[in-house]
Amino acid sequence: MSQQLSVKHLLGIKDLQVDDIRKIFATAANFKDVINRPIKKVPSLRDITVANLFFENSTRTRLSFELAEKRLSADIVNFSASSSSVSKGETLIDTVNNILAMKVDMVVMRHPKPGAAVFLARHVNAKIINAGDGTHEHPTQALLDAFSIAEKLGELKGVRVVIIGDILHSRVALSNIFCLKKMGAEVMVCGPVTLIPRYIADLGVIVEHDLKKALDWCDVANVLRIQLERQDIRYFPSLREYVMLYGINREILDSLKKDILVMHPGPINRGVELSSDAADSRQSIILQQVENGVAVRMAVLYLLAGQMD
Known about the structure:
This protein is α/β, with parallel strands linked by helices. 39% of the residues lie in helices and 15% in strands.
């Protein structure tokens, strides 16, 4: 198997081939061994400079990328700015070109505007990794989610995954759908009618509004956060009503005829989409997702850096 991806940048799962995803998983499995040994660093990205550009608040994704870069011995430049200062595309290019003038090789970027990473890849001479662009895609999250499922269940083909919650505002949902479908999983989305996009069934997913039916159907429940900060109108009467209809707790999990895996991309609104006794249960693989996030991001950085001239 070649150690190169078919793409020059990681802009979205939609651009990846199945072989690319398999390469990332195989490389991540090797790096997972590395980060679990006493000396956790490898020199794979020595002399490579990575700029982390976060134009939107992030804690988990930014820290995960930083740790991945440090484990690979890369040099790191961190940059953050409020979205208001980069609302125009020209400003974004100027900002990035200033950083690239410092001889940066790779850019990891989160931006509130959908398509920002694609725009950047067309205009600057560096490898671009999309760490989330608006409500569009979040490819490394989907890769680590799929990797975590495959690690636990042995494969993805035929696995039934339900994505529950705020599908409308979620870049995680879209990237997960693309990734899981490419790898042969069956995908369902579940949530209030107001939080399910109208086009979603066109992506080959099942739409369900009854939580109990969705949980009875699935092998894995990937539970999303209600993104109140992206909601400019009320999509449901109250959080209390949402919890009653779509909140998952230990009692609901115990009522199922089988054990299902419980996932969450974080941060969890405890007591809303997941109760603490569900989030911390033996069925939860949320902490494994965090660990796998570092290994998967190491794999992506390593494979893209391998294509440098």
